[in-house]
Amino acid sequence: MNGRVPLVDMRNMNKRFGGLRAVQHCSIDLYPGEVVGVVGHNGAGKSVFMKMLSGALHRDSGEIRINGQLADIESPRDAQRYGIETVYQTLALADNLNAPSNMFLGREIMTRFNTLDDDAMEAKTREVIQRLNPNFTNIKVPVRNMSGGQRQSVAIARAIFFNAKILIMDEPTAALGPYETKMVTELIRKLCSEGIGIFLISHDLNDVFDLSHRIAVMKNGRNVGMVEVPQVTQDDVLSLIILGHLPDGWTPRNQQAARGPG
Length: 262
Hints:
Layout: E1 8-17, E2 20-30, E3 35-39, H1 46-54, E4 61-66, E5 69-70, H2 76-81, E6 84-87, H3 99-103, H4 118-132, H5 148-161, E7 166-170, H6 178-193, E8 197-201, H7 205-211, E9 214-219, E10 222-228, H8 234-243, H9 255-259
Parallel strand pairs: 3-8, 3-9, 6-7, 7-8
Antiparallel strand pairs: 1-2, 1-4, 4-5, 9-10
Helix pairs in contact: 4-5, 5-6
């Protein structure tokens, strides 16, 4: 993309579970401020592919570069050092704790007396959540009592507070109503405007088309296509998901407009 160095460049990635080749020779890249949708049927390999970037799974072979530099990612802690955070579909939140306690879970701020600095954690939580979602102010209730959109706000705030530049988001709007989905969509767009790159794993093509700049399609462990959203329809992407290739005689959706009349 215009000679820029990608935030993430994964090349020739492979992962096998016994006799199952879950990911085969897959490559993908991601640029600052970009959303790349990662789609495919269940078992296509998209989650395994992304888990190798997050450090949740060890790759058998392949190369990962972050900002053009070779990255050694063997664990989620390694990934965090490279500015990579994952917001899982389950959100990995402790339901009985409030937003500040969740945000700093395992990374608590301590006072000079080695006690929890609750005031500092609350202040920093309010600061980052207000940046994301100014209407979300009731951060002291247990997250079990929050709406789906608010819970997503907490999970995303936790990721970006610790200087994430690369987010992996797994089904971020699953089980959300229209209003909550709109809230999360606005959060994602705001993150992009700040230069954060996002891999969006989703089954919902409406969300993928609404949010993504490019779409990577996985089938049977392989990356069968990387397409730019303005050039394709949902039917084109479904063809890649189901058949592994674009429809016969396919031409880019925007080709006619680019050529102009005549």
